[in-house]
Amino acid sequence: MVGTFQCDCNQGYQTTPDRQACIDIDECTIINGGCDTHCTNTEGGYECSCTPGYALLPDERSCTDIDECEENPEVCDGGQCANVAGDFRCLCYDGFMAALDLKSCLDVNECDLNHNICLHGDCENTRGSFICHCPPGFHVRKGTSGCTDVDECEIGAHNCDMHSTCANSLGSFHCACRPGWFGDGIDCSGMTLHEKHSKIFRKF
């Protein structure tokens, strides 16, 4: 009609009922805009987005799980990474414990947890483990954690005289001369013939 007009709208807009203006179409109200997860309306269009742990595919609508373990194999330092839908979890090795969010592994301080773990020695915490520093006369026996007494007499790690007996003690040993010998056990001397006769004579 003469003296009237009507609007043709661009994509993403629609005309008002009187066809004299264009207004934005909220695509998100129509089947979520075709988005897998989140739809955000924009002026003349819309955008799809994904929840954390998912990535938008090239079609800009679909979401796919992000494998954090594949993207960062060292993400669980001190443990094994296990991918789960939209997230990941850390399965921690011995000597580590999982953080509250299960997304990292924390070193366990064995020395603080058990003050007797290095009995007779000093405990040094290390990442994922610990070391026992033993004093002389003790050692760490394979398969054990604490400091075990070394039996110097059994392994021959003593300086007792051949005419003495060796007695093991905690962290050390003692030497004692056998009957008929005298000294401190480290050096033992036998009695001379004169000393024997003198000893017999003194009995009378």
UniProtKB/TrEMBL annotation:
Its main location: secreted. SUPFAM superfamilies: EGF/Laminin, Growth factor receptor domain. GO terms for cellular component: extracellular region. Keywords: Calcium, Disulfide bond, EGF-like domain, Glycoprotein, Repeat, Secreted, Signal. Residues 24-64, 107-144, 149-189 form the EGF-like domain. SMART domains: EGF, EGF_CA. One of its GO terms (molecular function) is calcium ion binding. It is found in: Secreted. The keyword Calcium applies. It holds the Pfam family EGF_CA. It comes from the Eukaryota. InterPro entries: cEGF, EGF, EGF-like_Ca-bd_dom, EGF-type_Asp/Asn_hydroxyl_site, EGF_Ca-bd_CS, GAS-SHBG-PROS, Growth_fac_rcpt_cys_sf, NOTCH1_EGF-like. PANTHER family: FIBRILLIN-2-LIKE PROTEIN, LAMININ G-LIKE DOMAIN-CONTAINING PROTEIN. This is EGF-like domain-containing protein. It comes from Eptatretus burgeri (Inshore hagfish).
